[in-house]
Write a structure and sequence with these properties.
By secondary structure, the chain is of the alpha/beta class. Helices cover about 40% and strands about 15% of the residues. The protein has one domain (about 15-190, about 220-240): 3-Layer(aba) Sandwich (Rossmann fold), CATH 3.40.50.720.
Length: about 250
């Protein structure tokens, strides 16, 4: 009996072989873990972030093809970055930015406008500047949250800001087709950003979620990265929102 040799590019772990994945906000947390997983699937990765030192360390960690240090909310810098890339770019994922928690009546008009439009504005700019470099069957993956499903005093304006992202994603997917556009809606993810937001309350929050979540554990960056790479490699997915919160949205 003889066994057939499977070409390396057909192995599941190399289903991104020969493709380029750009991580906007790829120097830590979900972005970095997605870069690590994409590399394991055979991709070349390009990382961007605001902190040059952290970016250099992250690039060394995952063997990134190149890096670029800039603030993704700087429209000119974002445009210049994509202009320097060689086509084709196969996948772009944006994890830059984070939630803004504050009582509504303590926010001024400028803050409200920034929070409500911040992610949509960033994601639209990424789509605009990357689309000319994207492979025909490429993909854009954005980060949102499940906070828009519930309205609580603690969430403040976060519910409104996250609720806008699913229809935005769907509309953009129609405009950019056949480039695919999808949204990952996460609950609490145990990242450096979560640690910075919660401070001394981090361990308490972890313990609470371990006790209450249906999955019996806290969601980590590797969980989100696995979903992100699946979205990149499954060419039937577009215009959709994918929840990953361990059942957090169902807790009362």
């Amino acid at each position: 009996m003889c066994s057939a040799t499977i070409p390396a590019t057909n192995r599941p772990e190399l289903d991104l072989a020969g493709q380029t994945v750009v991580l906007i906000g790829g120097s830590a947390g979900i972005g970095l873990e997605t870069a690590r997983r994409a590399r394991a699937h055979g991709a070349d990765v390009i990382l961007t972030g605001r902190n040059p030192d952290r970016l250099t360390e992250a690039a060394r960690d995952v063997g990134a093809q190149r890096t670029a240090a800039f603030d993704a909310t700087d429209d000119d810098a974002l445009k210049s970055f994509f202009e320097t890339l060689s086509a084709p770019v196969d996948h772009v994922m944006v994890t830059a930015g984070g939630p803004h928690y504050a009582p509504l009546l303590q926010m001024d008009s400028r803050e409200v406008r920034e929070v409500l439009s911040g992610h949509v504005t960033l994601y639209l700019a990424v789509a605009r500047y990357s689309s000319g470099k994207m492979a025909r069957r490429g993909s854009l993956t954005f980060m949102g949250g499940t906070g828009g499903r519930r309205v609580t005093k603690d969430l403040g304006i976060v519910s409104a800001a996250t609720a806008a992202l699913p229809p935005f994603t769907a509309a953009l997917a129609l405009e950019l087709a056949p480039i695919r556009v999808n949204l990952i809606a996460a609950g609490f993810v145990d990242t450096p950003l979560s640690a910075a937001l919660l401070g001394d309350g981090l361990d308490q929050r972890r313990a609470e979620l371990r006790a209450k979540l249906p999955i019996g554990r806290v969601v980590g960056p590797a969980d989100v990265a696995a979903l992100a790479v699946h979205i990149m490699t499954n060419t039937a997915l577009t215009g959709a929102t994918y929840d990953i919160d361990g059942g957090q949205q169902f807790l009362h």
